[in-house]
Amino acid sequence: MLKIEGLSKSYNKGEIKAVDNISLEVKKGEIFGFLGPNGAGKTTTIKMIVGLLKPDEGEVVLDGINVWDEPMKAKERISYVPDNPEIYDRLSGVEYLNFIGDMYGIRTEVRIKKIDYYSEIFKINDSLGDIISSYSHGMKQKLVLTAALMTDPDLFILDEPMVGLDPKSSFNLKEIMREMCDEGKSVFFSTHVMEVAEKLCDRIAIINNGKIIAMGSMEELRRSAKEKESLENIFLELTDNE
Amino acid sequence: MNRKLVSLIKTDLNITFGLSSLAYNIRKGKRIVPMAIIALAVLSLFPSYIFVVRALGSFYDAFRQIGQQSFFLHVGFMSAQLIVLVFGFMYVMSKYYFSNDLPHLVPLPIKPSHIIGSKFVSLMVSEYLTSLPIILPFIIIYGTRGNEGITYWLISILAVITLPLLPLVISSILIMIFMKYTNIKGKKDLIRTISAVVFIALIIFVQLKLNQWTTQSIIDSEDFMFNLARDANLLLTSAGIMYPPAMWGALALSKGFSVQGVFNLFLFIGSGLVGFALMMILAEKIFFDGLIGNIEVSASKGRGKKLDSSSVLKTGNPIITMAKKEILMIIKTPVYLMNSVGGVVILPILLVISMVTGGESYEPMKEMILQSREILILGSIGAIGSFGVLNALGATTFSREGTNMWIQRTLPIDPRVQVIGRTLPSVALQVVGGVLLIGGIFFIVPLKIFEIIIILVLGITASVPLTMIGMTIDIIRPMLEWTNPQQAMKQNLNVLISMAIGTLFMVGAAFLGYLLLPDYGLFVVLGLFVIIIVLSTVFIYKLLVNLVKTKFMDME
Hints:
The complex is a heterodimer of chains A (242) and B (556). With 242 residues, chain A is α/β, with parallel strands linked by helices.
């Protein structure tokens, strides 16, 4: 589904290597967790996948489509939820959803069905007529999630999706992610919450100082670590050694 | 001074003028080329500035010949303070009530007057950028041509420093009162925007009316010539009734180190300081009243009415949806609405007001217009076309996205949708401006139907390439990091640059018209304009589509 090869990005004229020659593959029907401490390069990598940051080197390919050569084709199949839900404060929830729907060309019936479904799950259906500036951080996050899920993406990319969500919505989101993968779609997300990654992900990559230091299923990661109890221990051991 | 206040002032100055980010960019060698281009663009304005200053010199000579040179200074003080006042209303409104830092400042243990005080200082600095280019030529011309001594120059430094104080205090006080009493739940933004436009129109009306009365009363006076010869400050004191502080400033400088001079200097600075103290007291009492409703997280706790999704969720054409989103954002953001609509609506309003209040003094102008209908038609087309840059919508369309830009860049939006969808709101505004302008022209001379059609159709289409020029500048250097929507619109150099390029474009077209009109007539010139408009639209459109495509990928 998603193939990243030799991806690099540096800042300050090459002084700081934010992402250093990383390669990974997210398979069809897979939930892929992207872990790393603050400033490890998670968001930079995600931004290069979704078209927000141009890589210095390497390529991002989605089912044979080079994301940077054919951005329109790629974007039609990707939905992205950023870590900070900065959205048009002055629009109402419905106006925002209609905007996103029109840009993806989603038919009215599909739009109604999807929005009714996801807004009910995230409990924002009663607020959709309100102006977004009146939403709390969590509600904005849920609106962005609803908009992203409405597009029925083949690849769902989320940057720290659990931050700001209440436990119930967090649980529901995990369920949705699993359902999506059962339908043959893929999910790629970054997180700080080890438990989520441990329980939810089919495969995990740990990034530190811009480099992938470990990648594989939970089992594979356990095999390669001394402290085998939990992902948290593995994570601490690997990132401390760097 | 209070340490909290000093810290607030330092931080606000830093945020407002982006000092830390500027230092960072210079240190890292970033954005040096764009900064050099801006510096060049600003420098390129100098020749026209020098030209205006020279013209002012002859203005001074004219007053000197009738012994009324103090009036020259008055005009300088009056113009500078009036412009500070008018800009002040908009700056104060957005700075005090719509800055993004307010939700962070309000919960901190800071007095309301300290918040206002710190923001006031930043505004003073911003206003120097407006007031200095206006007042300095007046002061320098008066000083050098009149061979004024050292006292004049010393007093003028004091006067220049304190010049924006009083007008800014007046606008601060009026806006604080205005915001307190318009803090009405519901259609708050709309109420405020409409009242603000009415308020500004009213000020212009009163100003023009007063101007007319005073001029008339001075000239009508039987002993006018005698008084003029007898009293070197006659014009100054008569006109000074309208707005005494400008008169105090002018008298402080022209009378120098005399009792009258010192007294007027005292009045000039003292009135500002007293006003400032009053503003601080008022800030303590009413600032939060107007503000809290503005930043409070209002109703949405999920208690709203459930929407009937089938009636509100509808599929639309992406271009129309993009245009609708832009229009909604403009309408719902008072700063955007005032600046864009203001630029387009003010000209027709001024035309009507000056015709209504001007009386006989505008007769020669009417005569001139009546004599050359061709110039009237071409001029009106030019005016409507110029709204394309004056409304600032094109030149800020990408900048206004700010931190929301990620949405536009991650959605599968065709660059053509971006370009056309973002041009339409500006065109829609030109339709409004065009109709108002036609209405304004009717006050001078009735127009025939075909003339109206020509003016509207050509004017509006001419505004398309001009809007796109603004968009081109904005996509090349979008200003996405702002804390206050005012910065995206009013403090965005893209507007200035697009105005400069737009003016060149229009001057070129006007020059062609001027050359061809006497020999070939109106319709040939109009035909030529159509060709220019179509060709430039196609060219800029293609350029813009490519730029959107590449810049959306390259932005960081």
